[in-house]
Design goal:
Radius of gyration: 21 Å
Helix content: 40-55%
CATH class of the largest domain: Mainly Alpha
Order of helices and strands: HHHHHHEEEEEEEEHEEHHHH
Number of strands: 10
Shape: globular
Strand content: 15-25%
Bound molecules: flavin-adenine dinucleotide
CATH superfamily of the largest domain: Butyryl-CoA Dehydrogenase, subunit A, domain 3
């Protein structure tokens, strides 16, 4: 066993940490307060290679491994989770779906624009009536004279209104359920393709979450992504890698909460001593630091196995489940350590607390992760 990062991985983590410390954190707080997407800050991710992390170099990407990707995602989310989820949805879902299943022509057309950050990517699976049970979607795609015509609505889509390119799933053979779903690449400006309501959310206020609406949307036949009726099967593979990155997102948020707790414990005094000297609080941060390290190890192990080409379905689910629950716990304890200060918006821990919750919901809820893990352990279909 080897727990050491390679020099390249350590260097990549250092670059991501330096960027997060310089550009995220408190610089994003005003955007969060205004519910505004930080375009100019997100634009700085492209030149660093962070918008095409998994995209092969021949298509303009950094072509990095999953361990490096997990390190970048952790560091960016330690800085700010709104920017973190923006780059996660763009890389893990949109760009990666095209990189994994796109034709050569599709990769040449779309990946360089995504990898440079010129175009932001979205990925639409969830609908108003279907989330965990994704195969119950209603969006339909039918062939009409060399084009695909889509009708339906996708809900809760990250980067929906700021993105220029979207990968979306739609039913192409209704009776076949999972085996009758296909993926399509849509571009803003295609007739009938637009954005619906933008959501106001509990957290991640500086990220963009909106509906994608298809009202007789017309996409060229060439924009079918992957084989016909294989969209759902391919989606499960995309989500597997996405879960590792969502676990890394949770580790970053948990670490940010602990960072804030430690900082506050050293500066705040009560009963003539700093909070750092209270045994009860020391126990809290010791537990958190231990659990965050365990979450990080599970996440990096899943990333390592993915890089080694091994099956990671339940390892990724375990990492995502554990890390997201650690993130929520760390955020809750960090607020507690701040006392009343943790409940007001002047302190970053309030934002971290709100942001953390998403990691237990997105990319499959904790209940769904438990289902995936249990089915694997019990060898159920
Ligand atoms: C900020 C944000 C960003 C998002 N970004 C995207 C995106 O970019 N693209 C995208 O496609 N989606 C996105 N989503 C959607 C997200 O993936 C879904 O919300 C999530 O998968 C849960 O689906 P749901 O909301 O329909 O909940 P439901 O499926 O309705 O679940 C409701 C409750 O029932 C539980 N439940 C459901 N089925 C079972 C079961 N079989 N056993 C036990 N419990 C069960 C759930 O765990 C949950 O507690 C985003 C969501 C949010 C909030």
């Amino acid at each position: 066993m080897n727990f050491e990062l390679t020099p390249e991985q350590a260097q990549i983590r250092a670059v991501a940490r330096e960027f997060a410390e310089a550009e995220l954190g408190e610089k994003i707080a005003p955007y969060d307060e205004r519910h505004e997407f930080p375009r100019e800050i997100v634009a700085k991710l492209g030149p660093l290679g962070f918008m095409g992390v998994l995209v092969p170099p021949e298509y303009g990407g950094a072509g990095l491994d999953y361990v490096s990707y997990a390190l970048i995602v952790e560091e960016l989310n330690r800085g700010d989770a709104s920017v973190g989820i923006t780059m996660w949805a763009h890389n893990s879902l949109c760009a990666n779906h095209i990189a994994m299943f796109g034709s050569k022509a599709q990769k040449e057309k779309y990946l360089p624009r995504l990898a440079s950050g010129e175009a932001l990517g979205a990925w639409g699976l969830t609908e108003p009536g279907s989330g965990s049970d994704a195969a119950a979607m209603r969006t339909r795609a039918v062939r009409d004279e060399g084009e695909w015509v889509l009708n339906g609505t996708k809900a809760f889509i990250t980067n929906a209104s700021v993105g220029a390119i979207a990968v979306v799933m739609a039913i192409t053979d209704p009776p076949k359920r999972q085996k009758g779903i296909s993926a399509f690449i849509l571009e803003k400006g295609m007739p009938g393709f637009g954005v619906g309501q933008r959501y106001r959310k509990l957290g991640l206020h500086a990220s963009d979450t909106a509906e994608l609406v298809f009202d007789g949307a017309r996409a060229p036949a060439a924009n079918l992504l992957g084989d016909l009726n294989m969209g759902f099967v391919n989606t499960m593979q995309v989500l597997e890698g996405g879960r590792i990155a969502m676990a890394a997102m949770a580790v970053g948020i948990a670490q940010a909460a602990l960072d804030q707790a430690i900082k506050y414990m050293k500066q705040r005094t009560a009963f003539g001593q700093t909070l750092a000297e209270f045994n009860g609080l020391q126990g809290m941060v010791a537990d958190l630091a231990t659990e965050i390290e365990a979450a990080r190890l599970l996440t990096l192990r899943a990333a390592y196995l993915k890089d080694a080409g091994q099956p990671v379905k339940h390892t990724a689910a375990m990492a995502k489940l554990f890390a997201s629950e650690v993130a929520m716990k760390a955020a809750t304890k960090a607020v507690q350590i701040h006392g009343g200060a943790g409940y007001i918006t002047d302190f970053p821990v309030e934002r971290i607390f709100r942001d953390a919750k998403l990691t237990e919901i997105g990319e499959g809820t904790s209940e769904v992760q438990r289902l995936v893990i249990a089915r694997e352990i019990l060898q159920l279909k």
